[in-house]
Sequence to fold (175 residues):
Amino acid sequence: MESMDGQQTTIGMLINKASQQISTLVRGEFDFAQANLKAKVKKLGLGGVLLAVVVVLGVFLLNLLLFAAVAGFAVIVPWWAAFLIVSAIVLVVMAVLALIGVAKIKASSQHKVNPKEGFQKDAEAVKSGIQASRAQDIADSLRESVQDQTGAPFTGVTFAEPANFSTVEDGESNE
Fold:
């Protein structure tokens, strides 16, 4: 095989060139993934900061709304009673949310996280795949061997009736 400049290209040179190209490709993919990860982390960080600001402002808003509720009840009852009523309502809401949260946490115990089992299943799948590949390789080599010896294409294996082999015991012969 000749290259563009008229020199002979050997298989070793081709393999070397292919491995260099694969190495360059892998490095490029790694650099691309790293750049994407940096951009994602930057956006996630900004998003997280903005959400934290929203939570802080939400707490201030909740305080204002609760004070407005107290002021609304104060029209009907004295201020101290209005604060007690609003506090009791908030306490009931907190209790309901706590009960729902505990129930969800208990329900999560049904889901078992066992990565070791998953890795073992993956390893077994790879082993069985390798074994199947080896069996296919053996079958292919047998097929090629039969074709080489007979000259006819190998069409499959047929089994005849089992032969009647007698065994040789205690020095006896089968003759």
The mean pLDDT is 80. The two ends are 61 Å apart (CA to CA). Residues 11-74 form the longest helix (64 residues).
